[in-house]
UniProtKB/TrEMBL annotation:
It holds the Pfam family Sulfate_transp. Residues 17-377 form the SLC26A/SulP transporter domain. It comes from the Bacteria. The lineage of its organism: Bacteria, Pseudomonadati, Pseudomonadota, Alphaproteobacteria, Rhodobacterales. It is a multi-pass membrane protein. The chain crosses the membrane at residues 21-41, 47-63, 70-87, 93-110, 122-140, 160-186, 193-210, 244-266, 324-354, 374-402. This is Sulfate permease. The keyword Ligase does not apply. It is found in: Membrane.
Amino acid sequence: MTPKLFTTLKTYTRAEFGADLFAGVTVALVALPLSIAIAIASGAAPAAGFVTAIVAGFLISALGGSRVQIGGPTGAFIVVVAGVIATHGYDGLVAATFLAGIVLVIAGLFRAGQLVRHVPEAVINGFTIGIAVIIATSQIPDFLGLAGSFPADFLEKIPALVAALPALNPASLATGLVTMALIVLLRRAFPRLPGLIVAVALTSAAVALLDLPVETIRSRFGELPQSLPAPRLPELSLASLRELLPSALVIAFLAGVESLLSAMVADRMIGGRHRSNAELMAQGWANIGSSLFGGLPATGAIARTATNVRAGGKTPVAGIIHSLTLLAIMMLAAPLAGYLALPALSGLLLLTAWNMSEPNRWGAYLRSRPSDRALLLITLVLTVVTDLTVAIGTGIALGLALRLARRGVDDPDWTPRDK
């Protein structure tokens, strides 16, 4: 369970440092708007996403089992985080993240890293698409500039959004649409350029220069902090432990699954092989570290890991540089980040949700065997209309039952995709 960093530093070269430096800075510029947008969508303060990307990102790269994994807050956690905050408050989320970190460390010690392969692919696809649906609907109010609050329940939220449509803000809609168009165009024209921050920065600058009636991070949340908060242990009692343990287990499950899937994607891109148990341990320490600084749950981020590889990242040093770059931005340029327009961040998350759903694979899902289609659909619907705990539990139970029922029939091989 030796971290990859310790192995790679034995033969580290100046050329590798140059490649890691460029990749780390590039990924940091991609992670900045994403981390802030994910925190806002989760119902947390923007600074929480910043802190998570810095602290958890550093620990995942320093202690992880992958050469190129980049960690931080991800879209998969938005649903869980929002639910925990709504039920237990932000302090409850911090405590649940701390407990999840302990669970992941224990899982790594018991060498549970290979168990992810036993989770049915249809379940993973189902809750991923379900999360994408929830993320997308949660971003519509800011994207359209709709004032007021909306129900958290999906079935209640849709008619409320439809009823509020006459009050949409054209400036907000235009800001969001232009941001999305710029992101797509920049990705195609300049794939090595950190197009996310460029697109969000350009439309946010237009909002400021033209004095458009569009909300920004600063206007809604105030100034972003310019330093990390002092670490402190979360408050835990026996009663709160019982209440928060189910949420902690879901956070640990998501962090473990997504980090190992991301590491497998990275292996395919670089022709390497990650150390799954070291990766689980790193996710555990990263979530413990993030909670000590009041951050969000964290895991390996598939999109940011792929960006790191495409930018030339060679070793975990790139992930450490990514974290230190974000810390430098926090200390030197946090006031500027406060001018980011909320519809621009919503447009970014709408694209993230679309990519999470992997529309290019919908045809393959429809052509899969009926039992897999049913399992995907059940998990998707339960994720959207109930909660992730019920969806994952039901999906895995049904998936294992189906696997037992078709003994002797080989499951098709599958590998995670680059989302």
